[in-house]
Here is the input.
Amino acid sequence: MVDFGYAPLEIKIHDLDKANLTLGEWIAERDETFKHCIACGCCTATCTAGKFTTFSFREMCHSIRRGELMEAITESEKCMLCGKCILACPRNVNTRNIVKLVRKANQNFRV
Amino acid sequence: MGKEVAIIGGGVAGLEAANQLATLGYNVIIFEKKGQPGGHAAQWDRLFPNRRHTSEVINSLKSRLNGNPSIMLSTAISAVTKSGNRFVLATKSKNFEADAILLATGFELFPAEKKEEYGYGIYENVITSAELEEMFAKHGKPVMKNGSTPKKIAFIHCVGSRDEKVNKPYCSKVCCVTAVKQAIEVKESIPEAEVFSLYMDLRMFGPGYEDLYKEAQQIGINFIRGRLSEASELDGGRVQIKTEDTLSSRPLKMSVDMVVLMVGMSPALGTIELISGLGLKPNKDGFVAVADYHLNPIGTGVEGVFVAGACSGPSNITDSVNAARSAAIEIHKYLSK
Here is the structure.
């Protein structure tokens, strides 16, 4: 077939009717502090990995809440597990454990 | 009637309740541990949302302190006990008796040095919102430690509020609008200054607050959505601050001449010890627990003991005046039984 260079546009809207939100539920069952984030960004501000990569713990959690599971899993690989963000978090989110759970989900959880 | 009401604390709530109760015919005495009435408000230069001078409000509240109500300054109450229907209030020198007690002990400013990573008490140009008010009162503008005028100033919201790390999980309610008010005042006093506000949410719940926010936007205050993670001092006393710009999902750093920490409201020191003698307990945030949050927010668990103002939780002046008036009615009902 002749390729005219046309393709359907990728739909960028968050569609919460279709989004897969199961990873967030799976994580929250194992660490309920996942639910406590108020998106202040302290974790990202203090993050050493975030200086050199696109890693943002806050954004990773948000991706999970919007069903963007592959983005979250890919991002989780950039964390160095140093735990500085745990010290900064005003809501005592167990950030390092949540990163570990996201990585574990990649291995054990059908997403 | 001639019954006696003792009010512990001569801030906004204590003064307003005293005025109302004296009008109702009670003999009212206020015990104030500081040397002057007015509480924290007496140290504040101007008020949100209209930037009215605080002294107008305080002078009005204390204008009736000429016999009844009376006030004992520099007098701390060390213990309150109930015997029958009477209360005994102990001070250093003597005991006083009363038929009803109003707790109006207010709040303490969050001690900003507990948030060590923000550098208060370590870096010379990190100050609190209360210290900025003092600067406005004294110089009409903020002044750096070395006497020069800051050209770049950052306001940091939620210092000692919404922070479980310092055991202050609650919102202090008044700091958002105070930061916006102060940011406008900085810009007015130093028009060439760049002013930044690092916020998480802007809780503009009161009348005129949202207008103030819009005014701040119009005069060019820069709002950055992110909480400060840490501050560090640069050469010359400038301060570098770090946050996440959560709207662009990237870490952000900037250097400023001055950092203003919006310190929250903490429970007043000594109040809990004071009420424990009456069998009263604090609520989960450490403030005085009220009898019923919706239906009796000025009652306590003990008959004849009432509460008004910020000693039961963060309050603005309007809240304190309203609570004081409610308390006066409730005390009147109690003493008319």
Q: What stands out?
A: The mean pLDDT of chain B is 96. Chain B touches chain A at residues 117, 158, 162-165, 200, 225-230, 242-246, 249-252 (CB under 8 Å). The first strand of chain B starts at residue 4 and ends at 8.
